[in-house]
């Protein structure tokens, strides 16, 4: 194991420089051109041949040990969030890595660099796929919906899009490590459906003849309040979360708002819980539109699947931490978090682990988040990941194959899973007003 640790330490300066460069150049999902280019250049500089994602950001490379065995996917996420209140956010876009993905990329680069060193691959079998993946943060739904309409992407999340494109075909196991405030291994997290909601009213002079209009903003606020009124109907084990924002609230102050748009998720611990809660939410949103006499268009699209870390992968991650970074206390629990990640889509078909490393401080996605210990978040995180690769791929990859064979995936194949999430797509106006004054609500 010392040879792996030393290989990472050799590239310490490069790893830490990458963390600072990417922090200084935050970009949101499917816009990460500077970040992707930077990572590409660093990988090519290490001698890797890359497969670039067609028409979008991101890439992958495959390392073949030339010894038969399974294939393990290791990822780092390229994108940032948007938090204009953060003192180091981009002054134009509001983007900032208040999510720690900059450290993920630096750690991935450290793994890639270490794997080029003599002796590191000795004793390992199979293949290692390293991937810089875009668009984990599920935001800017309207922008991504336009990309879908234009045929650039099919899915809103980067890992789901890469899965659909076949960039993960042949992979048996996947893992990545997310930056946090401490080292932790947890049971998983919730999944989600994404929602784009448009209330459609009638414009009129807000002072001279407001009675001639139908106020889409009032309908939207009624819809938000209606959703708030049903929150106590969500069962606690389902971990339902609904959190709409208004992205367009009107065009000018002296006109009754004709069109108002919202974005939201419905999150939950299972697809069954998500779909049941989503029906309640749509009913509340639609009823509010009817109460004001407006219409409403709801576009539901698959967000991310619920993440379930494979128990055997949780054990392996803890064992790797004891081998490679014993100086860090490790918290291990079956806790299901109420955030979402497209790593959940991979856990639907193969065993995965999505643990956390330390080095961050402040509120995740907040205005005070910083990577305060880049050694823990990047250098030592890379060592931990190499330890997981070692345990998975030594002895002919026996551990990896055992984990794969014993994993009970929720779906039998990639195609079955993608067909299922495609069935979650639904869009259109939800109210049909009739000439006799009645209406049909969908």
CATH-defined superfamily of the largest domain: Zn peptidases
Q: Would you tell me which CATH topology of the largest domain applies?
A: Aminopeptidase
> Per the principal axes of the C-alpha atoms, what is the gross shape?
elongated
Strand composition percent: 15-25%
Count of individual helical segments: 13
| Gap from first CA to last CA | 60 Å
Q: How many β strands by DSSP?
A: 24
Query: What is the CA-atom radius of gyration, in angstroms?
Result: 23 Å
What is the arithmetic mean of pLDDT? 97
CATH-scheme architecture of the largest domain: 3-Layer(aba) Sandwich
Percent helix: 25-40%
Oligomeric category: single chain
What class, by secondary structure content? alpha/beta
Biggest beta-sheet profile: 6 strands, mixed
Key structural traits:
alpha/beta; Alpha-Beta Plaits; 2 domains; elongated; 6-stranded mixed sheet; 442 residues; Aminopeptidase; 5-stranded antiparallel sheet
Q: In brief, what are we looking at here?
A:
By secondary structure, this protein is α/β, with parallel strands linked by helices. 36% of the residues lie in helices and 21% in strands.
């Amino acid at each position: 194991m010392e040879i792996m640790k030393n290989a990472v330490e050799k590239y310490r300066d490069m790893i830490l420089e990458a963390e600072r460069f990417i922090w200084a150049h935050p970009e949101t999902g499917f816009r990460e051109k500077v970040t992707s280019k930077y990572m590409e250049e660093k990988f090519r500089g290490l001698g890797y041949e890359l497969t670039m994602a067609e028409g979008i950001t991101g890439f992958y490379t495959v390392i073949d040990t030339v010894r038969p065995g399974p294939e393990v996917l290791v990822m780092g996420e390229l994108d940032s969030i948007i938090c204009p209140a953060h003192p180091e956010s981009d002054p134009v876009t509001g983007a900032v890595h208040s999510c720690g993905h900059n450290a993920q990329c630096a750690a991935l680069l450290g793994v890639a660099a270490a794997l080029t060193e003599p002796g590191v691959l000795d004793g390992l079998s199979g293949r290692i796929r390293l991937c810089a993946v875009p668009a984990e943060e599920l935001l800017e739904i309207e922008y991504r919906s336009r990309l879908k309409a234009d045929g650039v992407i099919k899915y809103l999340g980067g890992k789901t899009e890469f899965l659909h494109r076949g960039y993960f075909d042949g992979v048996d196991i996947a893992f990545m490590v997310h930056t946090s405030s401490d080292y932790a291994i947890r049971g998983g997290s919730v999944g989600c459906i994404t929602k784009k909601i448009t209330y459609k009213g009638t414009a009129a002079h807000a002072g001279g003849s407001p009675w001639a209009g139908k106020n889409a903003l009032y309908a939207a606020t009624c819809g938000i309040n209606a959703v708030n009124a049903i929150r106590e109907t969500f069962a606690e084990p389902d971990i339902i979360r609904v959190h709409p924002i208004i992205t367009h609230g009107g065009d000018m102050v002296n006109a009754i708002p004709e069109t108002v748009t919202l974005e939201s998720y419905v999150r939950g611990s299972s697809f069954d819980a998500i779909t049941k809660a989503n029906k309640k939410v749509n009913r509340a949103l639609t009823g509010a539109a009817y109460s004001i006499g407006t219409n409403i268009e709801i576009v539901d699209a698959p967000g991310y699947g619920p993440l379930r870390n494979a128990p055997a992968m949780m054990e392996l991650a803890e064992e790797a931490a004891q081998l490679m970074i014993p100086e860090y206390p490790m918290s291990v629990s079956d806790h299901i978090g109420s955030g979402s990640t497209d790593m959940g889509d991979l856990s639907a078909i193969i065993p995965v682990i999505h643990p956390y490393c330390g080095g961050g401080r402040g509120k995740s996605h907040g205005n005070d988040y910083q990577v305060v210990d880049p050694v823990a978040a990047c250098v030592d995180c890379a060592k931990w990941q190499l330890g997981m690769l070692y345990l998975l791929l030594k002895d002919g990859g026996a551990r990896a194959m055992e984990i794969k064979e014993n994993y009970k995936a929720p779906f039998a194949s990639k195609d079955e899973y993608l067909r299922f999430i495609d069935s979650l797509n639904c869009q259109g106006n939800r109210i049909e007003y009739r000439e006799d004054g009645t209406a049909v609500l969908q």
